[in-house]
Design goal:
Elements lengths: L5 H8 L4 H7 L4 H8 L1 H13 L4 E5 L3 E8 L4 E8 L6 E11 L2 E8 L4 E6 L6 E4 L14 E8 L4 E9 L6 E7 L4 E8 L3 E2 L15 E7 L9 E7 L4 E5 L11 E5 L2 E7 L3 E9 L4 E10 H5 L2 E9 L5 E7 L4 E7 L4 E8 L7 E4 L14 H56 L1
Antiparallel strand pairs: 1-2, 1-24, 2-3, 4-5, 5-6, 6-7, 8-9, 9-10, 10-11, 12-13, 13-14, 14-15, 16-17, 17-18, 18-19, 20-21, 21-22, 22-23
Length: about 425
């Protein structure tokens, strides 16, 4: 049997489907070490990105469907993941971000317990993220928003949480790192609220090492007090960027398209998409494409650009009047449409792109109803312990005050008694 050099063997294996690579780890010890090494996993992921290989997540109330897109046949292979126990549903699954093959999601149960979960859709491995400080009070806040990305400087995943502060016009910020499995507070940022239209899942993808949100701050220097808030994942610093001047009188929304930050705005007839260009000196908005929606689709309730394909075509998600999500391929040169997938449970707001990877969370836990139920039970127990600690602290404070008052009263009575004795003498 001919034994190939490790470099050639690695170059062959990175081109295989991810699930095949996972199976080949059982061939022998040498293959097992190679196919689990961080260098191989990084190379495999980069190769998939370079050739335009990607998957889609379609999030519905209690399910997440993953679609594998084949650029040669223009088809999607579907698999379904039931990840929530139906009896515990309140808000369903919230998608909070995707990076390097991992997904961050959140579920809030009827009892208001909150669970954050990191999940690898390819292997189904998951890890519960501990709740950040103050998460038990989230239902009382006007806004709470998350972001998820990778810090290449320290080679670790990060979660950022932005939450309303009691201080007016201010937002508290905490950052979680996967390796330390802990949260820490950083400098907050001035703002009043996030954009009222809500976040599309496609907006929750990192772009060039940064996360982005459309936010509102009364009295800001930007038009209509709205601007794009940017968070640098490595530096852990915020920056602000103006919105482009839109031609369509509709609320804008962000999304990530082909690794670039884009902004879309549409009415019932036309949608225009802008791309944030970086020429090395400054960043500016440029018109990407325009589609006449009514001409191609009739009534469109929602629209999202999903992915730029290697052949220049664009994958779009649309909510039409039939109450279905339609995934279509649009050719801007020919102005033609190819319908490739329908889903009656998902919407364009709940579509996101990810590239499969074999990154391990080293937990041995796999996502499913039982995992959610166990995590919610742990969250309820943790919340109860936090409440008990708060009550104990309050009682201790009351006790300390009472002791001081009691000591003062005894001293005063003793002084009066001594004064009486002195007078009698």
């Amino acid at each position: 049997m001919v034994k190939l050099p490790i470099e050639i063997l690695s170059d062959i294996l990175i081109r295989l489907p991810v699930k095949s690579i996972a199976r080949f780890r059982c061939v022998n010890n040498e293959w097992h070490i190679l196919l689990k090494s961080s260098k191989f996993l990084k190379t495999q992921y980069q190769h998939a990105v370079e050739i335009g290989k990607f998957n889609l997540i379609l999030r519905s109330y209690s399910n997440i469907d993953t679609l594998s897109y084949d650029p040669l046949s223009f088809t999607c292979e579907e698999s379904s993941h039931v990840i929530c126990p139906m009896e515990s549903l309140e808000m369903g699954i919230e998608f909070l971000g995707c990076c390097n093959g991992l997904v961050l999601s959140r579920h809030i149960s009827k009892s208001q317990s909150c669970v954050l979960m990191l999940w690898n859709p390819c292997t189904n491995e998951c890890k519960r993220v501990p709740n950040p400080p103050g998460a038990s009070k989230d239902q009382d806040r006007i806004y709470v928003e998350y972001g998820f990305g990778y810090d290449y400087q320290i080679q670790d995943f990060k979660v950022v949480r932005l939450a309303e502060s009691l201080e007016k016009n201010w937002c508290k910020v905490h950052v979680y790192t996967l390796k330390s499995n802990s949260w820490r507070g950083i400098d907050g940022v001035e703002m009043d609220d996030f954009d009222d239209t809500g976040m599309f899942d496609m907006a929750r993808l990192p772009v060039n090492g940064s996360l982005h949100w459309i936010v509102y701050a009364e009295g800001s220097e930007f038009r209509n007090d709205h601007f794009i808030l940017c968070f640098d994942i490595e530096k852990e610093e915020f920056d602000k960027r103006p919105l482009p001047i839109l031609e369509v009188a509709a609320e804008p929304f962000l999304c990530v398209l082909g690794g670039s930050l884009t902004l879309s705005s549409y009415d019932s007839e036309v949608v225009s998409v802008w791309e944030l260009k970086d020429n090395g000196v400054k960043k500016s908005w440029a018109k990407f494409f325009t589609i006449e929606l009514e001409k191609h689709f009739g009534v469109v309730n929602n629209f999202i650009p999903v992915q730029s394909l290697k052949n220049g075509k664009i994958l779009l998600g649309l909510d039409l009047d039939d109450n279905c999500l339609h995934m279509v391929i649009y050719d801007p040169n020919q102005d033609t449409i190819l319908d490739i997938h329908e889903d009656s449970m998902a919407s364009s707001r709940s579509v996101a792109v990810y590239v499969e990877s074999l990154i391990s969370l080293d937990t041995g836990s796999y996502l499913g109803p039982a995992q959610w139920e166990t995590s919610h039970k742990e969250d309820e127990d943790d919340s109860k312990e936090d409440d008990d600690e708060e009550e104990e602290e309050e009682e201790e404070e009351d006790g300390d005050d009472g002791t001081e008052d009691g000591e003062s009263l005894c001293d005063e009575e003793e002084d009066i008694e001594n004064e009486k004795k002195n007078k009698s003498m």
